[in-house]
């Protein structure tokens, strides 16, 4: 029996809906494996702006710092799209990532066999997809300064800065190499070195580090080519490591190899301190409040939380197995299944996964 503190940040849109199911899963795991998960809720995003005037209240930061792990839903929505940049919901998410130094974002892209025929791509192309995208999460154009609007000679000018230090590049690349060592030992470093100075530095550092990991095969690939290769032949990839914005875009693209954006979980990790776990999707304003969202990305993020932050491997496996069984039994939410007669709501999907968690044998 063990005791863990988990911060729960539901956020906006479908965030609270998918988090509700994920929390019920955590409660089921606690019962089944005799753990105590003390869950405390915090505000982040638009809901925090509305209640406190800021997307990342100090209490939320304190709550996260005092937890063993953090589970987050999603932030943002049209209601806050006209806010000043520091009051946008997204600033809350970027703020917590930066404050906790969560520089390594792991986004596994794994196709469940049961969903082979649900990808919009041909099954013979997506079969066997198992890619891990390692996205740098606290640097690059998301955080570089100057970042401003000003009056120029031809009307307003807007400036964003893509900046990376050697140290930032090195630490994320080392994560990529080490993770590849535990997998198929192939690392694809993605950049735009034919154009960007930051990418040329990135490539130099990758080449230098590769001597420390002689068992890993390093390849460099330009990001535009990767965007195409992911669709053409995803099986060629094992671990992909890349900078912040490329990783953001490629992971949404790669999600469709698995059938839906609603399937991809993520872990955001630092060298010390709590990890943050969240689905890679957003707040989905178009379906929010309708009990339609796919909760599996968030439920699978719970599995990542148990594995990476709490070191509860069996518990993580049990969740992934329950999801697998649920999909094998033919249950789907609307984003995946086109058979609308049989489509499950968010709540029903969560209930179904829990039923396989409760009695894996009888249901299996
Ligand atoms: P989105 O990921 O919210 O939605 C894109 C499309 O995918 C929508 O059609 C949506 O209905 C669908 N979708 C997403 N998740 C789904 C799920 N679990 N089940 C079923 N369908 C799902 O991206 P967007 O529409 O570009 O952005 C909406 C808002 O979300 C914006 O404010 C954006 O900033 C924010 N956002 C937040 C995060 C985050 O909190 N980590 C991530 C991405 C976008
Ligand atoms: C994600 C999201 C965020 C990002 C936004 C909401 C700031 O798209 O987590 O993928 O771009 O990192
Ligand atoms: Mn994104």
From TrEMBL:
Primary site of residence: cytoplasm
Enzyme Commission numbers on file: 1.1.1.85
Protein name in the entry: 3-isopropylmalate dehydrogenase
Species this chain originates from: Sutcliffiella rhizosphaerae
Record-linked SMART domains: Iso_dh
Pfam families reported in the protein's UniProt record: Iso_dh (PF00180)
Alphabetized InterPro entries for the sequence: IsoCit/isopropylmalate_DH_CS, IsoPropMal-DH-like_dom, Isopropylmalate_DH
Known cofactor(s): Mn(2+); Mg(2+)
Domain Isopropylmalate dehydrogenase-like: 5-353
The UniProt record lists the keyword Lyase: no
SUPFAM superfamilies (UniProt xref): Isocitrate/Isopropylmalate dehydrogenase-like
């Amino acid at each position: 029996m063990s005791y863990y503190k988990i911060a729960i940040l539901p956020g906006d849109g479908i965030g609270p809906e998918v988090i509700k199911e994920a929390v019920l899963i955590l409660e089921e795991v606690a019962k089944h494996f005799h753990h105590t998960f003390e869950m405390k809720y915090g505000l982040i995003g638009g809901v925090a702006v509305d209640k406190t005037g800021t997307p990342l209240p100090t209490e939320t930061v304190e709550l996260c710092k005092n937890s063993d792990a953090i589970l987050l839903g999603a932030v943002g929505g049209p209601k806050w799209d006209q806010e000043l940049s520091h009051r946008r919901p997204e600033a809350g998410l970027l703020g917590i990532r930066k404050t906790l130094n969560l520089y390594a974002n792991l986004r596994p892209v794994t196709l469940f066999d049961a969903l082979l025929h649900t990808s919009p791509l041909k099954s013979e192309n997506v079969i066997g997809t198992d890619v891990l995208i390692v996205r740098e999460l606290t640097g690059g154009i998301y955080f570089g300064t100057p970042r401003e609007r000003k009056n120029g000679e031809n009307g307003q000018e807007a400036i964003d800065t893509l900046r990376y230090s050697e140290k930032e590049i090195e630490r994320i690349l080392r994560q990529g190499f080490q993770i590849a060592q535990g997998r198929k030992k192939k690392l694809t470093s993605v950049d735009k070195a034919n154009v960007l100075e930051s990418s040329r530095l990135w490539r130099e550092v990758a080449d230098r580090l590769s001597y420390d990991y002689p068992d890993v095969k390093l390849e460099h690939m330009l990001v535009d080519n990767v965007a195409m290769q992911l669709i053409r032949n995803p099986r060629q990839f094992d671990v992909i490591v890349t900078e912040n914005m490329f990783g953001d875009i490629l992971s949404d693209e790669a999600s469709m190899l698995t059938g839906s954006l609603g399937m991809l979980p993520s872990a955001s990790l630092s060298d010390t301190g709590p990890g943050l776990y969240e689905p890679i999707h957003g707040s989905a304003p178009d379906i929010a409040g309708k009990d339609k969202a796919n909760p599996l990305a968030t439920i699978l993020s719970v599995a990542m939380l148990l594995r990476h932050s709490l070191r509860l491997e069996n518990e993580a496996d049990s969740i992934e197995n329950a999801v697998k069984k649920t999909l094998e039994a033919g249950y789907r939410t609307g984003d995946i299944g086109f058979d609308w007669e049989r489509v499950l709501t968010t709540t029903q999907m969560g209930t179904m996964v829990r039923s396989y968690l409760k009695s894996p044998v009888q249901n299996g």
